[in-house]
Amino acid sequence: MKYFNNKLKIENISVNTLAKRYGTPSYCYSYNQLKYNINTFKKNFNSFSPLICFAVKSNTNLNLIKEIKKFGLGADVVSMGELMLALKAGINPKKIVFSGIGKTSEEIEFAISKKILLINVESRSEIKEIERIAKIRNKKVNIGIRLNPNTDAKTLRQISTGKKENKFGVNDKIFCDLVNYCKKSKNIILKCLSAHIGSQILDHKPYEKMLKVIDRIIKKTNFSFEFIDLGGGMGISYTGNKKLNYKKYCLAIDKFLKKHKSKIIFEPGRSIIGNTGFLITKIIYIKKSGKKNFVILDAAMNDLMRPALYGAHHNMLPSEKRNKKFVKNYEFVGPICESTDRFSSFKKFQELREKELIIICDVGAYGMSLSSNYNIRPKAIELLIKNSKVKIIKKRQKLKELI
User: Fold this and answer.
1) Which residues span the domain enclosing 332?
2) pLDDT tens for residues 282-333?
3) Average pLDDT over every residue of 209-222
């Protein structure tokens, strides 16, 4: 996305043209950015060629997952619906990992019937339920056990998953007990040690600590795991500042693999899809209130939940750049009757006018997938821009459909 003659374009198509043709708010995705992200991710870890399973929860658009599948990626799913979606997109079942702490019996039965690569379990009760279903079906089921490595990912509290107070995984003592239990089972085949410490991680050091914990646990269990699932969580730069040092993370994994001959699995979501997405929204009103200027948009927290959910920041850009006058203290908000329906504040921003367009950046991950119909608001249209052509990949909802 760049400015040409002071007008913002996504892959050579004017944002103004997109808004005029498809309305606002609109989600737009750049295919070129998606392609670049996937190829770069592969290149960063080409020394050991991991199995890359896209975290479907980050973006659940069927057409985008079909594009991702063409690059040879698998899928990390956390519900029966996500598993069905991944299969419908054509992803090979042997490249699908089913994660999550609360799989129902119905979900487990469905996963077993589809012969997916792994079910990553998080409790003794879950193992017993898989064992019960597998016994009835006379099947042997491949599983992984998720370890809670008690590692602080140094990220937002709301998206931390690897500390002992988080609900995910099991501690080292229970992990060892579960390994011994699986060894005796006739219907369970233990294949994987899984760990995932959080999301939006921009420092390689927590990953290094996680690998040291995994190394210690493997020695403790004296078990040879075919797969080591390191989860995802690789962050992107929403502010243009810090970036994750993939080279150092790769070196740490290379060092780990000299001791353990396992296949590495990654479950990236945000790092694949995050910066491919843009939300085009129109200014409804500009309201002055003391020293603050509220820019009221037609997009709201139901369209993009991240800022309201955990104070996430997204950069905002005007569709047309003017270098004349700047205004202090713009706060971009939505029309929903909640104080948390706000996006970002800027101490200095170019002067805006009502009915102009604003582009919210880096919304590809956890944008549309977290959207809702709160206030009976229809979900936005989704567009894919590929080779300078626009394809509708999800129609805008209509009020008639909701009411």
Assistant:
1) 2-29+274-402
2) 999 999 988 889 999 999 999 999 999 988 999 999 999 987 778 778 999 9
3) 94
Of 256, 271, 286, which residue is a domain's last?
271
pLDDT tens-place string over residues 137-177: 999 999 999 999 887 655 555 544 445 566 678 999 999 99
Q: What residues are paired with 98 via a beta bridge?
A: 77, 119
Verify that 305 and 159 share a domain, yes or no.
Answer: no
Instruction: Count up the domains in the chain and report the number.
Output: 2
Distance CA 328, CA 320 (A): 18
- Which tokens sit at 94? 């042997």
Closest CA to 143 of 93, 72, 191: 191
Among 234, 252, 271, residue at a domain's last position: 271
DSSP state string for 28-70:
EEEHHHHHHHHHHHHHHTTTT--EEEEEGGG---HHHHHHHHT
pLDDT of residue 198: 84
Q: Where are the alpha helices (DSSP H) in 74-199?
A: 80-88, 105-113, 124-137, 172-184
- Residue 159's pLDDT is 45
Are 208 and 309 part of one and the same domain?
Answer: no
One domain, residues 243 and 294: no
Rounded to whole angstroms, the Cα distance separating 239 from 90 reads 35
| 267 and 293 belong to one structural domain | no
Residue 13: CB atoms within 10 A of its CB come to 17
What distance in Å separates the CA atoms of residue 215 and residue 253, rounded to the nearest whole number? Answer: 11
DSSP, collapsed to helix, strand or coil, labels residue 158 as helix
User: What per-residue string of b and e applies to 344-356 under the rule 16 or more CB within 10 Å gives b?
Assistant: bebeebbebeeee
Closest residue by Cα to residue 38 from 388, 275, 346, 338: 275
Torsion angle in degrees (nearest 10) through CA of 66, 68, 70, 76: -90
Specify the pTM. Answer: 0.93
Average confidence (pLDDT) over 93-100: 97
**In which residue are the tokens 């998720």 written?**
146
To the query of whether residue 182 is one of the catalytic residues in this protein, the response is no
CATH of residue 44's domain is 3.20.20.10
The sign of the torsion formed by the CA atoms of 153, 156, 159, 164 equals: positive
